[in-house]
Specification:
This protein is mainly β. It is built from one helix and 50 strands. The chain has a domain at about 415-568. The strands form five sheets. It has an 18-stranded parallel β-barrel. A 16-stranded mixed β-sheet has the order 4-5-7-9-12-15-18-21-24-27-30-35-37-39-41-43, with no helix packed on it. The N and C termini lie far apart (about 75 Å).
Length: about 575
């Protein structure tokens, strides 16, 4: 029989959004992310602030067709009942769904029953409750069968009051939930969340698109994605979220979000792209690398003009944020990566506010206006007072930021790297900022910046109240290569500290003023007066290796301190 394409639904939604956005002078268009891994020997030109004409981003990479075939549920080892348009699964077994259902699949089985729901070319829509609702079972697996297209539509009006009766998402479970399969699943959730389980959520292999008015994907206890192709869209909430922080059976604090393996995840969120109640981890497995792309706030072409969220971070963790592999591209109106310190969890522990980067590729553009327009907007397409975050940093840890590997490119930000303690021992970090490029701020310990290795290239303006590297405590360098640019005054400088600044090894190239406290040198450090401070590209040779550096601005002078030979 004739099938109706979900593409029509998306087109209608897009037309409605375009009409709404037009009323707010919002430009919806297409943007292609460039993944440009940065190496010290590659010419890198930070672009600084983004322009207000940049278009928001939308997606049409995953589609599915709705079917009008007669609905059928089959099982060879389970039991179910029918009451009106509600099919209730009551025992363990495998259940195969196909055809069109205007109704609900309700799972109410035994505490230890394992349920498998196979989606075999099915469309389910319901306007009274969650189209798939799991109230009791041991654990549940929902699988989209190979080469099938499946659609779940929650057509209830948007949630306005809390209730324990109705399901919180288009797919809602009070059990552990697994989503998998080699087919396609599209979920449209007009009521609240897209996928929501009160326990653990795992996603594998699936080609999945979720469009939700609130959180697109939510697992209260945890979310784990280790493969599959996901497009995650929230028009007024967060992309992927966890909530609980009590202890699991092993005594570990719940609330983690983990993305590994071959997972490809693209997130469009009005609020935070990823919000973890505890830890966030991105890592490789068996040489397989995940790829995450995040657009928050007005960078997303799906953000509703009525969204009231006030946080638009790329990734936010309440405890520990770890990246050891894969690629993550972020365009956000708030901190790109953020870890909180001092959050009290249900286990009694408190958040450590730490970010560890040991590998991977991180690219980000963070819009961080400090001056709002008369209408209160802060950035391209900001709605009234919605997109008005100031002081948005590239990478912000409330306590410790450690970089020992990886390639980091921060194209624009308020402060590029900010933490109480910043340790850089490896990797390549290219930072452009509107205020301080690297800032050690007040926090649990004495502020400090420690450079023992790696490559750090920092750009801030040659004028104004900005510092290339600013420590409210100390700066120490015993290795690595640092290229830091800053204003031509001693009060705002390329390198500014409230305490001591010293170098005992490695190389630091300072373009602009050194700062009023100067830099103490170890016995093996030589001073070089070179000419690298004019606008444009320059070549510097450090210990026989050529490095290409590019200045967006002209600076007053170049001074180099190094334990290695340096020439230009």
């Amino acid at each position: 029989m004739k099938k109706l394409s979900i593409i029509l639904v998306v087109v209608v939604l897009a037309i409605a959004m375009l009409t709404l956005f037009a009323c707010s002078d919002f430009n919806v268009g297409t943007y292609t992310t460039q993944n440009t891994a940065t190496d010290p020997n590659i010419d890198t030109t930070p672009s600084g602030n983004i322009g207000s004409t940049e278009s928001a981003v939308t997606d049409d990479s995953i589609t599915a067709e709705e079917t009008t075939e007669e609905f059928e549920i089959t099982t060879s080892d389970g039991t179910f009942s029918l009451d009106g348009s509600i099919y209730t699964i009551t025992s363990a077994g495998t259940y195969t769904l196909s055809g069109y259902l205007n109704g609900e699949i309700l799972v109410d089985a035994g505490d230890d029953d394992a349920i498998v729901i196979e989606l075999n070319g099915v469309t389910i829509e319901y306007n009274l409750d969650a189209p798939i609702k799991i109230v009791n079972a041991g654990d549940v697996e929902i699988s989209a069968k190979k080469n099938t297209e499946n659609v779940i539509k929650d057509t209830r009006s948007a949630k306005t009051v809390d209730t324990d009766i109705l399901g919180e998402g288009a797919i809602y479970a009070k059990t552990d939930l697994k989503l998998k399969g080699n087919g396609t699943l599209v979920i449209i959730a007009n009521y609240n969340n897209g996928i929501h389980t009160t326990k653990d959520l795992k996603i594998k292999n699936l080609s999945l698109k979720v469009i939700a008015v609130n959180n697109a994907i939510k697992g209260n206890d945890s979310v784990t994605i280790d493969s599959g192709n996901l497009v995650v869209i929230s028009t007024a909430g967060d992309g992927i979220k966890t909530e609980n922080t009590d202890a699991d059976k092993k005594g570990n604090t719940r609330g983690d979000i983990t993305i590994t393996g071959t997972a490809s995840v693209t997130i469009y969120a009005a609020g935070d792209g990823i919000q973890s109640a505890h830890n966030f981890t991105m890592s490789e497995t068996d040489d397989n690398s995940p790829y995450i792309t995040i657009y928050t706030g007005s960078y997303s072409g799906y953000t509703s003009s009525s969204a009231t969220t006030d946080s638009y971070k790329g990734v936010k963790a309440e405890n520990l944020l770890t990246i050891s592999g894969g690629t993550i591209d972020i365009k956000s109106f708030d901190d790109g990566l953020h870890a909180n310190y001092g959050t009290t969890f249900e286990t009694g522990e408190t958040g450590i506010g730490t970010i560890n980067i040991t590998g991977g590729v991180i690219n980000m553009t963070v819009y961080s206006t400090s001056v709002l327009t008369p209408s209160g907007r802060g950035g391209p397409g900001g709605w009234n007072n919605q997109q008005t975050v100031t002081g948005a940093d590239g990478i912000h840890a409330d306590y410790i930021l450690s970089i020992s590997g990886g390639i980091i490119t921060i194209d624009s930000s308020y402060e590029g790297l900010e933490a109480n303690i910043i340790n850089i021992s490896g990797g390549t970090s290219i930072v452009a900022a509107n205020d301080d490029g690297v800032n050690a701020k007040a926090g649990p310990a004495t502020p400090q910046i420690n450079i023992t290795g790696g490559y750090l290239d920092v750009t801030v303006s040659s004028s104004g109240d900005t510092d290339g590297i600013d420590s409210n405590g100390t700066y120490t360098q015993s290795g690595g290569i640092v290229i830091v640019r800053g204003p031509n005054s001693t009060m705002s400088a390329a390198l500014d500290t409230d305490g001591t600044a010293s170098i005992t090894g490695g190389t630091i190239i300072i373009l602009g003023s050194l700062g009023e406290r100067g830099l103490s040198k170890g016995s093996g450090i030589s001073t070089y007066n070179l000419s690298l401070h004019s606008f444009g590209s320059h070549t510097v040779i450090i210990d026989g290796t050529s490095y290409q550096i590019t200045n967006k601005y002209a600076y007053s002078r170049t001074i180099v301190y190094s334990s290695l030979s340096v020439s230009a």
